[in-house]
Design goal:
Elements: H1 9-19, E1 21-23, E2 47-48, E3 54-55, H2 57-67, E4 71-77, E5 80-85, H3 89-97, H4 102-108, H5 113-125, E6 128-129, H6 130-135, H7 138-143, H8 145-157, E7 161-167, E8 182-187, H9 188-191, H10 194-197, H11 205-219, H12 225-232
Antiparallel strand pairs: 1-5, 2-3, 4-5, 6-8, 7-8
């Protein structure tokens, strides 16, 4: 498929709002990603700031849309990154949570202890950098980086946790930012608000899924139900 060329942040927001969801990287639906529909200058063609840090606009936009709450961003499609419109976020929360808030899921279903520890840590400390969560939890210290990565990805896929910003390290010598942004996470209901995240709780999770699936099939006529199911499940 061929989507409109993304030349700036406004283009990204407009396209995501129209479709409802837009993967960041190339995926099983050919042509359906930011990566495949963005101008070269905004992808790997870096620009140097006055402070000397090289920036890649597409990566900078992630933090900007989160800080301004223009779009939801995180690992929500097969454990991979995507942008989601504010309008459709409640639908995704409803069918991904399948009728369970996290506490209910923990009480009634099998939830890995590392997931519970991460939620508890964020609940007590508020928004935290990924490295703060990892090193703040003994369970992760013993089991290593893979356990943390799997846990934080799983919690995003279930819509309980979401990135809220990307923070760049600052050089002690120059006082300037450098390198890649480090993700800062928070409990989704705290950052986006319970009213938004639970906005479709009045309907069955399957109903929310069918509504979003129907919308995506209309917006992506080249796709079939199998393609959409793989994207959403």
């Amino acid at each position: 498929m061929q989507l409109p060329l993304i030349e700036n942040l406004d283009d990204l927001i407009e396209l995501t709002d129209e479709i409802g969801l837009l993967p960041f990287f190339e995926n099983h639906i050919t042509g359906f990603s930011v990566e495949e529909n963005i101008s070269e200058d905004n992808w790997w063609q870096g620009n140097t700031t006055d402070g000397g840090r090289i920036i890649w606009p597409a990566w900078e936009w992630k933090g900007e849309v989160l800080r301004e709450k223009k779009l939801v961003y995180g690992k929500f499609t097969n454990g991979k990154a995507c942008f989601i419109s504010i309008k459709w976020w409640p639908y995704i929360c409803n069918f991904r949570r399948d009728g369970y808030d996290f506490d209910s899921r923990f009480d009634e279903l099998v939830v890995p202890m590392c997931d519970h520890a991460a939620m508890d840590f964020l609940g007590k400390n508020g928004p935290c950098l990924s490295k703060q969560i990892k090193y703040g939890l003994t369970a992760f210290d013993r089991k290593g980086q893979n356990t943390f990565d799997n846990s934080i990805t799983r919690l995003q896929m279930q819509t309980y946790v979401t990135p809220v910003d990307f923070i760049y390290p600052v050089s002690k010598k120059s006082g300037l930012e450098y390198g890649w942004g480090v993700a800062k996470y928070d409990i989704a209901d705290n950052y986006w608000g319970k009213r938004l995240c639970r906005g479709r709780y009045k309907e069955e999770p399957a109903e929310s899924y069918e509504k979003f699936k129907k919308h995506l099939l209309k917006m992506l006529p080249e796709c079939n139900e199998k393609d959409i199911k793989r994207l959403l499940k």
